[in-house]
Task: structure prediction
Amino acid sequence: MSGIGSFLWKISVALYLIANGVLGLGKGGVFANIFSVFGSSAGIFVIIAGVIALIAGVAVLLEMFNIKISILDTLLFIIAIIWAIFFILAVIDWIGAGFGWGGLATLAVYLMILASLLIASKRFG
Result:
């Protein structure tokens, strides 16, 4: 892929991963929501996911400058799996909440993020 759309897409994926990685290091952000089902032991999972996301985000930025990171696909794939689980839980929550339009809009954003992660991992894109 090339062009301005591809460039902006890569920047957005990288920034999203970096931001959520930093938030995850503080046991917050989207990973805190994803792993909240683990209760009091969620913190370690949040930190691990945050580190992986931070490394993956930096790796995406570096690849934009033709600096290859051999484990990038694996890191992005791990984040995509975590995000897919989160997405499934969000769908279940949306169904339980009564199929509202606001929830559908949120699910659409979550699905775009999942698709971006899968494309970035190059395993499905």
Q: What stands out?
A: Residues 25 and 47 are 5 Å apart (CA to CA). Helices lie at 4-25, 29-34, 42-64, 72-97, 101-121. The chain is about 80% helix and 0% strand.
